[in-house]
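Bug #77: duplicate submission created two jobs. Keeping one. Sequence:
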Amino acid sequence: MSKPVFAIIGRPNVGKSTFFNKLIGQRISIIEDTPGVTRDRIYAEGEWLNKPFILIDTGGIEINSEDAILKQMKMQAEIAIATADVIIMLTEIGAGVTAADIDVATLIQKSGKPIILVVNKVDNIGQTPLEIYEFYNLGLGDPMPVSSVHGRGTGDLLDKAFELAGDSSNRIEDEDAIKVAVIGKPNVGKSSLINNILGENRVIVSDVAGTTRDAIDSYFENDKGKFVFIDTAGIRRHAKVNETIEKYSVLRAKMAVERCDVAIIMLDAREGVTEQDTKIAGFAHEAGKGCIVVANKWDITDKNGKTMDKMRKEVQHDLPFMSYAPVLFISALTGQRVDKLFELIDFVSNQNSMRISTGLLNEILSDAVTKVQPPSDKGKRLKLLYITQPSTKPPTFVIFVNNKDLFHFSYQRYIENQIRNSFGLEGTPIRIIVRERGDKSSD
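Kept job's structure:
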């Protein structure tokens, strides 16, 4: 189940950052009385009644401003609106309904997303002030009074937000379909790949990085199986909002990875692995998803007979934590090798779901210990007593030992490699959990 995304939108100086911090429970956004202090969209993960959510804070929107910074803030807010499942429009009781509030309301209504109208700074306990009825003029339904400072009304608000997020879910869910997230930095060809697979312009493609502003689920079925592709195109890297764009790309990648079974990490073959590629790939690895590295734009990459092998080694070197992932070289534009992707996705998904019997695992463990003796320290030797697999996605193994401190990382890596050599597990991370069991026998 993916976390719902709630975006706080409003004109400047209605208390969005204070409200954001209250809902998240920690001081993340900068709070100051000067309008427009929050110029970046900031997001954080929160929890309400054991239900996780993602909250996005935005700078104040001034629709008609010609100020360059305010224009950028408006653009960031629009991206947040496109990303959100539910929009929380924040207003302020003291000022009443302003022309700027009306402009913001008009903007968010065009999104078609569920909207909660919130009137902030209702700080006095007791009867709801009559001034709140003025906010019905915005045409956004019943206004909810809250106090960001005291936390009044925030629980009811989150209840409402979760209710609307559940009702608004239009994502394709198919028990049999493999959910595939196409992730990567902007302008590597994610949308072009989706379009090539679907044979139609399902996602807008242009030479300007970032023309896709919302995640789109696309169902596809062929003789290899059923697939749901999650497109997560980034947006234009602009000098003044460079850091913000990266935050946005990271958020989108994390959200998509959370929902997927297999992550396709797309690279530009002409550039190789960049720092941002490494960061995005890390999310899929840490989440335990099946992983495929796809080097796109192979048709326009300078190459000779050795280029492919050379680049495969470079990718494995630059993504050392993901050496298990197969690397495929494609052209999303011409369709070169795209057909090989389906079989690879199905294979990696099965590897990620593989379950191995306890008997086989202990045979492999015994052979591994015989080949390479476990490490010792000050006369005490590590004993590997037993191994079992409690879960899949990713394959997770619990090894019981006599002394956890003796089970060094290098020997854990050796055991992991022995498991991979015996059972494949290509395209999936594996987890090893070490537990200590009392052993009174002498070492």
